[in-house]
Design a protein that fits this description.
single chain, two-stranded antiparallel sheet
Length: about 110
């Protein structure tokens, strides 16, 4: 695999590996898209702004070897946006799966 796709592949793998939590354990994160968007928007907005500021001040840099070359406003690589979306989704799916399991355990 080309180096510039490794990071995006890792983010895809995180999403794919947590998908069984949605399908098998019934985490119900993907099945409630409106709720998911409301959870993601503030997170993405805050961290995107943080990155723009950090990049502008030269506090934050990226290894171009692992970037596909697409940048968003503020010189933020597309990989950062993918990270800001993928990792919170994985976290939410995991949280909801654990909650589902714990609810089932208390009913027994």
């Amino acid at each position: 695999m080309a180096d510039e796709y490794q990071y995006l592949a890792l983010m895809a793998a995180c999403l794919v590996l947590t998908l069984p939590l949605e399908l098998v354990l019934g985490a119900r994160v993907w099945r409630r898209p409106r709720r998911l968007v409301f959870a993601l928007v503030p997170t993405v907005a805050v961290f995107f702004a943080w990155d723009v500021l950090a990049i502008a001040r030269h506090h934050w840099t990226f290894n171009h070897r692992y970037l596909v070359g697409l940048s968003l406003p503020g010189n933020v690589p597309i990989e950062e946006l993918v990270f800001f979306v993928a990792i919170p989704i994985c976290g939410l799916v995991t949280l909801e799966a654990v909650r589902t399991l714990l609810r089932g355990r208390h009913r027994a």
